[in-house]
């Protein structure tokens, strides 16, 4: 389902409803100067899709709108989700206004003149999740468990957590360190956890998760080995010191019995056990002060020596996960599915980067879904990250290329886990260099790339672009939805709403 309409109902019910009509399968441009309402477009969509709070900027859209609504459509079925404006203060109570919804389904829906509550937030979430994120419920349980996706600290993952893939705000376009930008850290964390499962088939997702576990265990073992060496040395020194103080009943040579054999550790544990009376007896602190200090250090060392047990467990875990990886690789050799999937997204990103005429096309872009960052493999097999490329056009261009590639990648799957539309906030402005002649060329190339993206997907994908200046010309797959420039005298909230509402309030 793509975005068909944004609907605003005026606080003054005698005024006309404000409707913004979008076109499916096209690049939809909304052009406007500052303070015309462009910055309210995504917050309105987000609010109707069960946002935890109203993020529409302070101003006319909050002050003069009684309900916000959107219509989603797949060409046959329509879904209208309307939500009462929780910011209005002209009613007796604000209680539960945050979750007052109207939900309508059907063909050729009539927009009601006055919305009425007929459902609650939980029902809206359930309906939307069923239509767009049933994929999440089909992920094998072992994937959730092994990657700890059902983290009690962050809660369950829902369609709310994937919405950041449907919009690129201006500050996100310029961010070379992460293509994901959201006001809620928890949503970003959830999305990073679920991205491997969204991007790849179940088999490939399982393979990459196993690879991630393998890398994690190998890094842990590397750290363990360094710490283990220190523990071994300390255990030897403590045994010699205990022997010199007469705490050792039966001597053994620590140069012969190695700590990793557990014998030295058992000797130290025996010393603690046999001299336990020194640790608990009263009145002997002064007399046995030096011995007590050594026994205390032995106790501390043995507690830390549990790292040896952890090391043994990680060895077993590494053997299991490596066996799983070899099995998956063997089974996939016949059809090459894993290699094809892992390279598919890279090829798309590079194709869009070429369409945008970006630099560094000799590099292979690789999306690191765990860190949600783009890195590149150079011709000499070195890895560099987007932030190391060092120019704004590369940041913006590769971020746009990644988002376009994501949507194409998803749409070619049997089941698309996200809404098939993308809102981009002022890409032309972010893409500019400051030189007018160069900027016109680069912005023209950008518009051609966006038009190319929707053409490739043959009506299945929709782009909404918020800009200050209109394109030089409308391309075959692009439409001008609204123009709120100074010459048009229009904006998101009509002047009549403000005038009538102010007179009513007086």
Task: Supply the number of helical segments.
Answer: 17
As a percent range, the share of helical residues equals 40-55%
Rg (C-alpha, Å): 31 Å
How would you state the average pLDDT, rounded? 80
Oligomer kind: single chain
| Shape category | elongated
- Overall structural class, as computed from helix and strand content, comes to alpha/beta
Low-pLDDT segments, ≥5 res: none
CATH class of the largest domain: Alpha Beta
Question: What is the CATH third-level topology name of the largest domain?
Answer: Rossmann fold
- Spatial separation of the terminal alpha carbons: 43 Å
Q: Tally the structural domains.
A: 3
Give the spatial strand order of the biggest sheet: 2-1-4-5-6
Named CATH architecture of the largest domain: 3-Layer(aba) Sandwich
Q: Beta fraction of the residues? A: 5-15%
Largest sheet: 5 strands, antiparallel
H-E string: EEEHHEEEHHHEHHHHHHHHEEEHEHHEEH
Number of strands: 13
InterPro entries: DUF3732 (IPR022205)
Pfam families: DUF3732
Task: Explain the overall architecture.
Pfam families: DUF3732. With 506 residues, this protein is α/β, with parallel strands linked by helices. It folds into three domains: 196 residues, 3-Layer(aba) Sandwich (Rossmann fold), CATH 3.40.50; 136 residues, no CATH class; 95 residues, no CATH class. Helix content is 46%, strand content 15%. The chain has 17 helices and 13 strands. A hairpin with a 4-residue loop joins strand 8 and strand 9. Helix 13 crosses helix 14.
